[in-house]
């Protein structure tokens, strides 16, 4: 590659990008770090490039040194993760039931958008709060006891019916299919579940 230019190896757009970066560092005297795709032999590869000026004894910039790290595998993994997360969210949105998750203190950390259709609350209005704040008073004690017993017995899953209070004040009957979660040390870390409205 010695004595050749980026245009001898890359497509014009990729080569223009490299040349512009070198000119920018040579002109400003400041180092830069950027990620970008380059087309090499018809294949798109991602690189993390770090460019720095090289100065002579008089301080004049005489060259630009570039360190390039091939991060194609990492970028592909990130894109696959984003795709999977979007597919997961699409599935959640397509389901008519409420999907939720709590922490070990029973505070909601996730609630699917369907909660607004069924209970009138937006997910943000529930995040950080416990279910007990939205249950009918007659259901609070029984609900708490059922979930606590499930944790103590390390049950894999359980069904439970509760009366909730809709945002406009009327009662809503929900059936929960809940699963206790435990961390690597066996300590309880919260619940995940699906709530279905009963007619």
Characterize the structure shown.
A five-stranded antiparallel beta sheet has the order 5-4-8-7-6. The protein has helices at residues 12-28, 72-94, 114-119, 123-126, 137-152; strands at 32-40, 43-55, 61-70, 98-102, 108-111, 158-165, 171-182, 188-197. The protein is elongated. With 199 residues, it is of the alpha+beta class. It is built from five helices and eight strands, in the order αβββαββαααβββ.
Task: Write a concise keyword list for the protein shown above.
199 residues; alpha+beta; 5-stranded antiparallel β-sheet
Task: Sum this structure up briefly.
The chain is of the alpha+beta class. It has helices spanning 12-28, 72-94, 114-119, 123-126, 137-152, and strands at residues 32-40, 43-55, 61-70, 98-102, 108-111, 158-165, 171-182, 188-197.
Largest sheet: 5 strands, antiparallel
Mean pLDDT across the residues is 90
Classify the beta-strand content into a percent band. Answer: 35-45%
Q: Rg to the nearest angstrom?
A: 28 Å
Apparent shape: elongated
Ends distance: 73 Å
> Count the strands?
8
Strand order within the widest beta sheet: 5-4-8-7-6
Q: State the secondary-structure class.
A: alpha+beta
Low-confidence stretches: none
Give the count of helical stretches. Answer: 5
Helix content: 25-40%
- Write the H/E string, N to C: HEEEHEEHHHEEE
